[in-house]
UniProtKB/TrEMBL annotation, chain A:
GO-annotated molecular function: hydrolase activity, acting on carbon-nitrogen (but not peptide) bonds
Domain (Amidohydrolase-related) ranges: 276-406
Pfam families, A to Z: Amidohydro_1 (PF01979)
InterPro entries referenced in this protein's UniProt entry, alphabetically: Amidohydro-rel, Metal-dep_hydrolase_composite, Metal_Hydrolase, Metallo-dep_Hydrolase
Protein name according to UniProt: Amidohydrolase family protein
UniProtKB/TrEMBL annotation, chain B:
UniProt KW Glycosyltransferase keyword: no
Protein's recorded name: Amidohydrolase
UniProt xrefs under PROSITE patterns: PROKAR_LIPOPROTEIN
Coiled coil: none
Organism taxonomic ancestry: Bacteria, Pseudomonadati, Pseudomonadota, Gammaproteobacteria, Alteromonadales
Residue ranges occupied by any Amidohydrolase-related domain in the UniProt entry: 373-437
Species for this entry: Thalassomonas viridans
Entry keywords, A to Z: Signal
A GO term for molecular function: hydrolase activity, acting on carbon-nitrogen (but not peptide) bonds
Highest taxon listed in the record's lineage: Bacteria
Signal peptide segment: 1-19
């Protein structure tokens, strides 16, 4: 057997991790290595695009790229010939209500919001991996999503969470993934008050913690302190202030975006902007402050006075200024699969294909703290094999894997179509 | 207060005093002006234009390679190979595609314009289950920046409809997508009016919450039937008046009723039905409703379940206007299939349309049609670009009653065409030039032909 191209020690580590697992006897199929060969591999790393490449997957992760030889324990039926077609990381959707809403207008099928929701609201408890939206969304090559709460009256809408689209009951990958806030024009009241509320929350907590620390230092000289347990929202604020969790803010007007940049710089936050219709006006400042933005590439109408400069050219303009762009379908969650068409339209309007691919993979993974979004050793093996250009209308997903497991794209919609295309003497209800 | 003695029905009537002096004489005949807000549309300045060597999708199911199209005097003057025309501006169409101008049968541009602020919400007269007396054209704000965005997407004609809160929402109007200060300046000359009807969840929710009819689907049907029964009486009363007047009698004209005027227009075959109706069983009932009251049930819009009754639609000559993939936002949109349009299209005597109902997707109806084309091909349908373009051109023109004038690239038709930089069913396709009645209304590379709404002018 020839050696892997990748450093041996690393490979050995992964192999031993697999073999050494105590659960080997009942190991799932994914524990066995899988090889995808002859792929036009879009790594979304410095390696760029590798022609005629091989990827080895084991234990849900990418074990090796272009090894000098295939693993010894690889069985013939675990080799997929990609036939020169394009293999990309699975796409990452964001800021939708996947698994929280089945039918938007049916209240009983909606779990994304609650009037009293605040920053402690964790909707991941309600996530339904059996939602009919999930297999349908896979038609767009989407393997993961950041799901966001719609919240309630408070500007703090709650905590986003990350899921994979496997449809399995353990598909919540990471819950309590930061805090989601909305800022902007509203029919009653002033955005100034909301910005002030956000600012004061952080400032007050920061001061309180500093005070406690000082007190603690003083007290420890004399006696055992009687510290109170921090409240749930205080712990969340602490995580934001420590930069351990992102603060996601939906805002659009350029002046609001600048206020938020100032907030980030003052409190050293990990800030991610969402919406950001007028971002091109302040692209330089966003780039300097290293604030990634989540935008809808098709948004180009002045739908409000907060978004007079929305444009199809926005993704390209932001990327050119050095802003990390994450594309997202906004509005109803039912058509997440269109994320790839967002990318295509962004390319038609000036974004490079490589930037567009990063905007639905690596950039999202980085902003949300997910170990996915790239084809690189050690990353989650979320992969999609496409019949052609992933962004084209004429292309379809041929095969896809989530954490190394092959998943299909067959949905309830397909079953309905087939029923009504099947000739039958009995009523259609008998066709299954 | 002084009693008013003159009859109040003199709307649109001129009464001469001399006519009243002679008892033997008939009163001036009462006639209703059916076109009180007439089109003042004029094509933009134009130049005879010859587009050479383009790939032409005619809209009638044909794809013509390396073909020339001559636009002259507002019409498609010639179509073929090796055309030359003295004095014509020649455009190189090699590698480019030419299609008919895109037509959207379902738009709310101008009545729900951008910016979407409260004072702009003029598309849904949610005050009674039957508001057939309202006309969308009286709400249109021609400065809506959405018209420009749709033009960039190749839309040359669009029907503006009132919303779907009511059983009868009012009249729609068909517009040319040209910049204009007035609605009349956009109005498609001689296009028939449409009447918006709505099935299902919307009317029953809006009025059910107010504890009035309809609060159920059976209430919806009762509401339609009551209205058509009244309209039938109204029509009969006017016909009797006409008959008696023609016979030399001096009958009193029926009292004018704006609501029933619109419904009578449908019964007279002058106004076309555009029915927001998602579900198969409801569409079937609306077809029977039309038969009960002797009118044609027209085009079903949103028609998410049209695939379940594609044969019935074809047999009855109904068009169905559909999205490729919108679904799940309410129960009546739950049974979406991406091949809906293709399945409807495959039926005999079909009329499948892709519509937008959106200020965003109206800009990409070519992509919307493309999604259907490719998903259907993957699932065994024998379809091509030449077929798909008809879903956004000729079929909507049929639905709007204007297919004798526009909707296809055929000699003699209005020169409404779009020149695309590539196959229009690619995600990367962009309209380079758009023509309405032979006049260039948009050029991707020439700022002179890029209109800007008053609203966006000077916004920093």
């Amino acid at each position: 057997m020839r050696l892997f191209k990748t450093p041996l020690s690393r490979v050995a580590l992964f192999l031993s991790a697999g073999i050494g697992a105590a659960t080997l006897a009942i190991a799932p199929v994914s524990a066995k290595p899988l090889a995808i060969t002859h792929a036009n591999l879009h790594t979304v790393t410095e390696q760029g695009v590798l022609a005629d490449a091989t990827v080895i997957i084991e234990d849900g992760k990418i074990l090796a790229i272009n090894p000098q030889a295939l693993p010894e324990n690889l069985s013939a039926d675990r080799i997929i010939d990609a036939g020169g077609k394009t293999l990309t990381p699975g796409f990452i959707a964001s800021f939708n209500q996947l698994g929280l809403v089945e039918v938007s207008a049916v209240g009983e099928s909606r779990d994304s919001g609650e009037k009293k929701a605040d920053m402690t609201f964790d909707p991941s408890l309600a996530f339904n991996p059996r939602s009919s939206l999930i297999p349908y969304s896979r038609k767009g090559g989407i393997t993961r999503s950041l799901v966001a709460p719609s919240g309630g009256d408070s500007i703090f809408k709650g905590q986003p969470f990350a899921v994979d689209l496997s449809g399995e009951f353990d598909s919540v990958v990471k819950s309590s993934l930061g805090v989601f806030v909305t800022i902007g024009g509203k029919a009653k009241g002033s955005r100034a008050f909301d910005l002030q509320t956000l600012w004061h929350k952080l400032e007050d907590r920061q001061k309180a913690v500093a005070k406690q620390k000082a007190k603690k230092a003083e007290k420890s000289k004399k006696e055992k302190n009687d510290d109170k347990e921090p409240k749930r929202d205080e712990l969340i604020l602490d995580a934001l202030l420590a930069g351990e969790q992102p603060l996601f803010v939906y805002a659009n007007r350029a002046s609001d975006l600048l206020q938020l940049v100032k907030l980030k710089q003052t409190f050293k936050l990990d800030l991610v902007l969402v919406g950001a219709a007028d971002a091109p006006l302040v692209a330089k400042q966003l780039a300097q402050a290293e604030v990634p933005v989540v935008i809808n590439a098709l948004r180009n109408l002045p739908e409000s006075f907060d978004s007079l400069h929305a444009s199809l050219a926005t993704p390209a303009a932001l990327a050119a200024a050095g802003v990390k762009v994450i594309l997202s379908t906004s509005g109803d969650t039912h058509n997440l699969y269109q994320l790839r068409y967002q990318a295509g339209n962004a390319v038609a309007n000036g974004l490079s294909p490589a930037q567009a691919l990063a905007s639905v993979t690596a950039n999202a993974a980085d902003a949300f703290g997910l170990d996915a979004g790239r084809i690189a050793v050690g990353q989650a093996a979320d992969l999609v094999l496409w019949s052609g250009d992933p962004f084209e209308l004429s292309t379809q997903v041929e095969k896809m894997w989530i954490s190394g497991e092959e998943v299909g794209t067959s949905s309830r919609q397909d079953a309905l179509r087939d029923r009504y295309l099947t000739k039958s003497e009995l009523p259609k209800a008998y066709v299954k | 207060m002084r009693k008013i003695t003159l009859p109040l029905l003199a709307v649109g009537v001129s009464v001469t005093l001399t006519a009243c002096l002679d008892a033997q004489q008939q009163d001036m005949k009462v006639t209703i002006n059916k076109n009180p807000y007439p089109s003042s549309y004029q094509p933009l300045p134009q130049q005879t234009t010859l587009i050479k060597n383009a790939t032409v999708l005619t809209g009638t199911g044909e794809k013509l390679e390396n073909t020339d199209v001559l636009l002259q005097d507002g019409k498609i003057a010639r179509l073929g190979k090796g055309i030359s025309a003295a004095g014509a501006l020649e455009l190189d169409g090699a590698g480019k595609w030419l299609t008919p101008g895109i037509i959207d049968v379902h738009s709310h541009l101008g009545v729900y314009p951008s910016p979407s602020v409260g004072s702009h919400q003029d598309g849904n007269e949610m005050t009674a289950p039957n508001t057939s007396e309202v006309w969308a054209e009286h709400s249109v704000w021609p400065q809506d920046p959405g018209f420009e965005a749709a033009r960039i997407g190749g839309v040359t004609t669009l029907q503006i409809l009132p919303g779907s809160a009511n059983l009868f929402g009012g009249r729609g109007v068909t517009l040319r997508n040209v910049p204009s200060i007035t609605m009349q300046g956009m109005k498609f000359p001689d296009a028939p009016y449409g009447l918006k009807m709505a099935c299902g969840e919307n009317p029953k929710r809006v009025y059910g919450e107010r504890k009035e009819l309809p609060s159920t689907r059976m209430g919806n049907m009762a509401g339609y039937r009551s209205a058509w029964a009244k309209a039938t009486e109204y029509k009969r009363a006017w016909e009797k008046y006409e008959r008696d007047y023609a016979a030399g009698k001096n009958p009193q004209a029926p009292e004018r009723d704006l609501t029933l005027d619109t419904l009578k227009g449908v019964l007279d075959g002058e106004i076309l039905i555009h029915n927001h109706c998602y579900k198969a069983e409801e569409m079937a009932m609306m077809i029977d409703l039309g038969k009960e009251f002797n009118y044609h049930s027209g085009t079903f819009h949103h028609a998410v379940e049209a695939y379940k009754i594609s044969d019935l639609l074809g047999d009855n000559g109904n068009c169905a206007a559909m999205w490729p993939d919108w679904w799940g936002f309410k129960m009546e949109a739950y049974d979406m299939v991406q091949e809906n349009v293709a399945i409807v299209d495959a039926a005999k005597n079909s009329c499948a349309i892709v519509h937008s109902d959106s200020d965003s997707t109206i800009q990409r109806l070519n992509q919307e049609a493309g999604k259907i084309l490719y998903r259907a091909k993957e699932n065994g349908f024998d379809l091509s670009e030449a077929d798909a373009v008809g879903w956004i051109t000729l079929n909507p023109a049929k639905s709007l009653g204007i297919s004798d004038k526009t909707g296809s690239v055929e000699v003699g038709k209005n020169a409404d065409v779009v020149l695309w930089n590539r196959n229009p069913f690619s995600v990367y396709a962009q309209a380079e030039q758009v023509f309405v009645d032979g006049a260039k209304v948009y050029d991707r590379f020439d700022d002179k032909y890029q209109a800007k709404s008053d609203f966006l002018l000077g916004q920093k």
